[in-house]
Amino acid sequence: MAVELTMAQMKLAVMRHSYRGQRAQTAGTGAVIGVVLAAGTAYLGYLGPDFLAAGLAVWMLGWMLGPVFMGGGDETLRPEYFPMLGLPPRRLAAGLLTASFVGVAPLVTLGALAGLIVAGTRLGVVNTLVAVPAMLLQLAVFVLLSKVSVALVGIALRSRIGAVAAGVVNGVILSSLGQIWVFMVAFGVAGTPRAVWFLPSGWGLLAVRGEWWALAALAALVLVLLALWAALLGRRAGRPRVSGRGRRPITASTPAGAVVAKEMRTWSRDLVRNHQLAFALAYGVWFAASPLVIGWNGMLPYAGPIFIVMAAGMASNLYGTDGTALWLTMLSPGATDVRGRQLAWIATQGAIAVPLTVICTAFVGGPWPLVLALLPALLGGAAGLVPLVSVYALVPGTDPHKRAGNPLRTSEDDGGLTGLAYLMLALVLVSGAPAALVAIYFGWAGLPVGLLTGALCYWLFGRLAERRLLTHGPELLDTMRTGRKAASSRMTPYSDLPPIKKNIAGIGFGLGAIPLFPQGIVALLFVANGKTDSSWFLATYMPAPWNYAVAIGFILLGLALYGSALWVVRKRPEPDRIPA
Questions:
Q1: Are 412 and 379 in contact (CB under 8 A)?
Q2: Could you tell me the residue ranges of all domains in the chain?
Q3: Whole-structure pTM value
Q4: What are the C-alpha distances in Å from 247 to residues 267, 307, 488?
Q5: Exposure of 289 by Cβ count < 10 A (0-12 exposed, 13-18 middle, 19+ buried)?
Q6: Terminal CA-to-CA distance of the chain, rounded, Å?
Q7: Mean pLDDT confidence for 366-370
Q8: Which helix (H) or strand (E) covers residue 235, if one does?
């Protein structure tokens, strides 16, 4: 037990010294959002057991999938830190598991699991007492499921086939959650499916309701998952070996061509990029194709545009992922690194997006003006924004040869990576908005607008990124080497804000896209096209003309969130100083 307590104390000490400045603000904002969600989940225990079972299933999926999408989850204490201690795998797993309970996420999840106590109080004293061990065992199951899923994905990412397969599975799962309304309509689900009760997330609730075997099943599942994780930890030390046989050397005739060839080879070889590309493709295809289950093919033509947006989000930290290899670019200032990366990005993503869009649109028979206008606008916008965001909001990454046994762990700043990805998604969508609006109202006139905005974003944003790289290259390299931003780069309007305004900006930039795009713009298009039945867009449930009012209200809410965030981070003029 001494080892377990020692690791918990180590985790607490690391958190006490690392959660400062911007990282502390990000953690604080996430904690506030988590507490609100946890309170809502606990309230479901008062509404009824069906609602609580569904809510806990969502929390379990969040623990399993969230760390995979955010770079491997919490690894404050890595298994690689303790090989010289000679600890048996199960003892090491038990110690790391104990340390995993120290943190914001487990405490927030425990608050959500308090819904079991709420449900127990409605049944009797014994049921309430059973809820306490059920909460703890349920939390242990969630944490262990997270560890096992990340370990399995990490092992899969050691081969190209495994990286692609893991990306496809993750993309399908996440897009299915985004289109859950399709499957609810398809299977006629009016309430919570009975199968949700028998998922591991529902065993604690079954125990509270008098199914005492569920409590023993939870304890047995904890032991099984702990043993499985211990076995996976033993395999984590291995490293993928890449053969150099049969590789042709790069023989580019120009500096820009060398960058393009290097990037193309990286996209084909790097397992993390293989995983990201497969994830974006699977997400776009499945998100657009899943409504076919209910006989609606209206989203199928947008598989290509959705893929472009998601691929840009995955590549939002392009320079940070390369680590300190930036010094090679700094030694060759005329190598046009940014332009080469832009060309390589369009070549790799466009080779997938263009045929995917054409095939899916031809299958449906349109709308050709809209999708053909979106395609160049989004491709050009993403190709310009990927390097621009990466150099202006760089998140320090781990050098590829120094990554731990979990290949998904490309940076220690999970919150920064997540925020950067959401920012990229919103910006790429905005870059395609002018072409989309013109195509909706004026048809084929949207195509030249898409070509123009795409070319402009490609040239202008690439130019700004190139200038930033030339003028702030040493600061960016120092950020990658030390993990800390230089003093000159920290002096931004955001860094000078008080905590309250930082939280306002974080919530505005982080959540503004939800009411603006899905519940606002997309819902307005659905209502305008007469699609007012069976969807998760709130406006489609309202009678006319309130459906238009609700969609427009969400658009205004999203704009207000973004406007509030921009207002608090705006650069204010320095006050006039009166000389003494």
A1: no
A2: 2-235, 255-487, 492-573
A3: 0.72
A4: 15, 30, 43
A5: middle
A6: 65
A7: 92
A8: helix 213-235
